[in-house]
## 1
Amino acid sequence: MQAIIFDVDGQPAVGDNQHDQWCNVRRLSTPSFTEKKTMVDSYLTQWRWYWKDEIKKWNMYNTDVFLFTLERKYQTKQKTYLYTRENYFCMYMIDFLKMIEIDLETDRKQNITRRPLFVSKDDVNEKKFPDSIQFPAAMNTVKPVHFYHWDCAHDFELVELDTKGKEFNEVLKSLQDSMSPTLLFETKFIFRIQNRKLWSEYDIKKKLILADAEKDGRDQNINERDLFHGTDSLDTCRGICTNNFDFRTSGRNGTLYGEGSYFAVHAKISHSYTKADLPTDIRFMFRAKVLVGQFTTGNPSLRRPPEIT
């Protein structure tokens, strides 16, 4: 980096080139406020994120939780981040390597940047600190090791899986192996859905099932499985990503074993419940973690789980 000459404590800082017109400088800072949990003012650097509009003006992103989310993902080396606005109908991608934000609907790009809040020499001497962003309560939610850090500003985050990664190829193989061999299709994207509320509920339910099995002296194999679920629209996908599968919507595609949400071992069965999203002809399918637990045969009249016999 090159910079103009400036004074440091009254002493001129000059370069080492033949004209002494510039010098190499670099910013030194304390750890980011997202790296250590603290509820009081501290020496941690308060970084803020900005985007440049059409008239070249820099604007700070709204809400503390969104600023925290951006900084946390940047600090943990996440390469891209997808998020939505306007009730999920506008999707944007932030590229932390190129430092740009892309409107995925229009492909419009705008520059982004991060800057620390200014702390003067007098502030340091008088131990004054800039306004701090506190750790969001959502950060206390336990997550799987391979998940990115939680998106604290939105209900869920779609993480596009790397086509060369183990997780992508494992999901793709399970889809291809259980789809009809006569069906020709192309997998466009595979996303991991990260919803802290739903994951927390799932984790708690799993522990309760294990505890009940232990109490009753039963086998503690809870029969946790990866099963497929086909959907008929993008709006349905948004609802599932936000609120989970809703048994109250059952009946549209049949209730052979009673009312409830239906899942399939084989993708070819779930595919039959999908509908092409025109004009793209794209279909949507989930591969969900399901706590099957104990089970018995159902019938169309059931509205709640029957007694296990």
## 2
Amino acid sequence: MDGISYQHQPTNADIEQSRERAIAQLRETYGLTRQEARIGTLVGEGHVIRDAARDLGIQESTARWHLKNVFSKLDIHRQVELVRLIMHAEAR
């Protein structure tokens, strides 16, 4: 070998599969609706609410409503707490 190590770069399919695992886990563990879990996952991955809403084809106000429900159901108060939960869920 040439002494160079190569890391696997995640593909879009890898990312989507990881996201779907997180969505399923959030729904099962916390009783989130699919839309709440999708918004929570996107925001937890670092997407701004406006972009997450656009990606899901919903109004920003609707996305904010779902995110408010996510925070309530998960009993969290800050986005960093959501990020930790999503990272943990996606790692499984």
## 3
Amino acid sequence: MKDLGSLTVVVEQVDTPAKTKNRYRVTFVVAPESVGMRVQATDNNLFEAVIAAKAEALRQLNAIVNAMPRQWNLDAQKGGGIPPELLH
């Protein structure tokens, strides 16, 4: 898994109709050069938005890893990386 790639984090302040409260959108892009998985969360609290985006990213990554055949999981742990057929 260490060869998966990078993580890009984008934090934006979103305009609200009332313009009385700040609203934040956090976007995680996991391995934009290979996987390109995007996860977004929006909240009035920046910390809560980051935690929500992290939780969703972990959920999606766990689903990817759990869908891999067992041998690929073992190879990845030994430093073999993610098989190219799983990357798009």
